[in-house]
C-alpha cells in the first residue's frame, strides 16, 4: 500500500485527548503527519481527501496481542455452550442438536462448568446417552480441557497424552490441538479467518498476533494475495514447527506490511480453569498441583 491521502473527522483522539480541527496525512498505511484543517484542505487539492463530518471521530485501532483468529472464526461456526447454567440443559441441547444435523464430528465450544449448578464436568457416559452413535467433543472455554463421548474417543489413536478413556476427559494435548487430530479443510480455515476478521474489525481491532501452523500461514498468504486480508497479522508458530521454519531460513520479521512472521509459542504448563496450570501447592480439595509440559532444560534449549 503506497497511496498517500488525507483523512479528517470532527474529532480526532491524539496524544491522549480528543482534538478538533486537525487532519492526518497517511502514507503507505502509516500516519506520516498531523495537519491543521486549513493546511489539509490545501493539500487536498493534490491528494485524495477523506472528510467525515457530523458525529464521526478518528480513534486509534486496537492490537490484540494474543489471539487465535482462525480458530476463533471456526468456533463461531460451531455450537456454543456459553451462557448455560446447568449440565442438564447442556446435555438436552447437545442431544437435540446432534439429532437434527448430520456431521462427521460435533465440536461444542466455550463451556464453563464452574457456572453450572452441578459444578462439574460431564462424563463420557452422559454424552453417550444423548449422542450414542455420533462423535461428540465438548471443549472448555479455556481451550485446555475437553470431554468426548465413546465415538469421539474411538477416533483418537491409542497412547495420546492426557486422555482418560474411562471418563472421556482430555487435558492439554487434544483440546489444544484439535486441528491436528481432526483437521479442518482449507475452505473451513479460510472462512474462519474471514469471519473472525469481520468480527474483529467491528470492534476496532486492526492488528492481531496470531498463532498457527505453516498451513494457516499459507492460507493467510493466499488471502493477502487476493486482497482479502484487511487486518495486519503477526503470525507466530507453535514450537513443533520450529525445525521446519529454521530449515527454510524463515525468521521473525519476514513478510509484508499485512502479514509477518512473529515468534515461537511453547506451553510450559496448562490453565487455572482446567486445573492444569502448575503450582507449588495442590488445588483445593485435590492432590493435583497441575502439569508441567516443559522442563527447564527444554526451555533453555528452545
Topology:
Blueprint: E1 4-14, E2 17-20, E3 22-27, E4 30-36, H1 37-43, E5 49-58, E6 62-67, H2 69-76, H3 87-100, E7 106-111, H4 124-130, E8 136-140, E9 145-148, H5 150-154, E10 169-171, H6 173-176, H7 178-181, H8 186-202, E11 205-212, H9 214-225, E12 232-238, H10 242-247, E13 259-265, H11 296-301
Parallel strand pairs: 1-5, 6-11, 7-8, 11-12, 12-13
Antiparallel strand pairs: 1-2, 1-3, 3-4, 8-9, 9-10
Helix pairs in contact: 2-8, 8-9
Which properties best describe this structure?
single chain, 302 residues, Urease, subunit C, domain 1, Diaminopimelate Epimerase, Chain A, domain 1, four-stranded parallel sheet
Written overview of the protein:
This protein is α/β, with parallel strands linked by helices and 302 residues long. Among the domains are: 57 residues, Urease, subunit C, domain 1 (Roll); 103 residues, Diaminopimelate Epimerase, Chain A, domain 1. 30% of the residues lie in helices and 28% in strands. It has eleven helices and 13 strands. Strands 1, 2, 3, 4 and 5 form a five-stranded mixed beta sheet that branches. Strands 6-11-12-13 form a four-stranded parallel beta sheet. A hairpin with a 2-residue loop joins β3 and β4. α2 packs across α8 and α8 crosses α9.
Order of helices and strands: EEEEHEEHHEHEEHEHHHEHEHEH
CATH architecture term of the domain at 79-181:
Roll
Low-confidence regions = none
Please tell me how large the radius of gyration is. Answer: 24 Å
Helix content: 25-40%
Q: Which descriptor suits the 3D outline?
A: elongated
CATH class of the domain at 79-181: Alpha Beta
CATH topology-level fold name of the domain at 79-181? Diaminopimelate Epimerase, Chain A, domain 1
The whole-number mean of residue pLDDT values reads 93
Strand segment count: 13
Strand fraction: 25-35%
Amino acid at each position: 500500500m503506497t497511496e498517500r491521502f488525507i483523512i479528517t473527522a470532527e474529532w480526532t483522539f491524539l496524544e491522549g485527548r480528543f482534538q478538533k480541527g486537525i487532519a492526518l496525512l497517511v502514507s503507505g498505511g502509516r500516519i506520516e503527519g498531523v495537519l491543521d484543517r486549513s493546511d489539509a484542505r490545501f493539500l487536498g487539492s493534490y491528494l485524495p481527501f477523506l472528510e467525515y463530518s457530523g458525529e464521526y471521530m478518528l480513534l486509534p485501532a486496537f492490537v490484540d496481542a494474543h489471539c487465535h483468529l482462525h480458530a476463533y472464526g471456526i468456533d463461531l461456526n460451531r455450537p456454543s455452550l456459553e451462557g448455560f447454567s446447568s449440565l442438564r440443559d447442556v446435555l438436552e441441547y447437545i442431544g437435540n442438536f446432534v439429532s437434527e444435523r448430520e456431521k462427521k464430528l460435533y465440536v461444542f465450544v466455550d463451556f464453563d462448568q464452574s457456572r453450572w449448578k452441578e459444578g462439574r464436568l460431564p462424563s463420557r457416559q452422559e454424552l453417550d446417552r444423548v449422542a450414542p452413535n455420533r462423535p461428540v467433543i465438548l471443549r472448555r472455554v479455556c481451550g485446555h480441557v475437553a470431554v468426548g463421548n465413546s465415538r469421539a474417543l474411538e477416533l483418537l489413536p491409542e497412547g495420546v497424552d492426557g486422555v482418560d478413556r474411562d471418563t472421556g476427559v482430555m487435558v492439554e494435548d487434544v483440546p489444544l490441538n484439535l486441528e491436528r487430530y481432526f483437521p479442518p479443510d482449507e475452505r473451513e480455515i479460510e472462512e474462519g479467518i474471514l469471519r473472525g476478521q469481520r468480527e474483529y474489525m467491528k470492534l476496532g481491532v486492526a492488528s492481531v498476533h496470531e498463532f498457527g501452523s505453516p498451513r494457516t500461514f499459507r492460507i493467510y498468504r493466499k488471502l493477502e494475495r487476493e486482497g482479502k486480508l484487511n487486518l495486519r497479522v503477526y503470525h507466530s508458530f507453535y514450537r513443533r514447527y520450529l525445525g521446519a521454519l529454521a530449515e527454510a531460513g524463515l525468521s521473525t520479521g519476514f513478510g509484508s506490511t499485512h502479514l509477518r512472521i512473529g515468534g515461537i509459542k511453547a506451553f510450559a504448563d496448562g490453565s487455572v480453569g482446567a486445573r492444569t496450570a502448575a503450582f507449588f501447592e495442590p488445588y483445593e480439595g485435590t492432590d493435583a498441583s497441575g502439569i508441567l509440559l516443559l522442563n527447564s532444560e527444554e526451555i533453555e534449549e528452545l
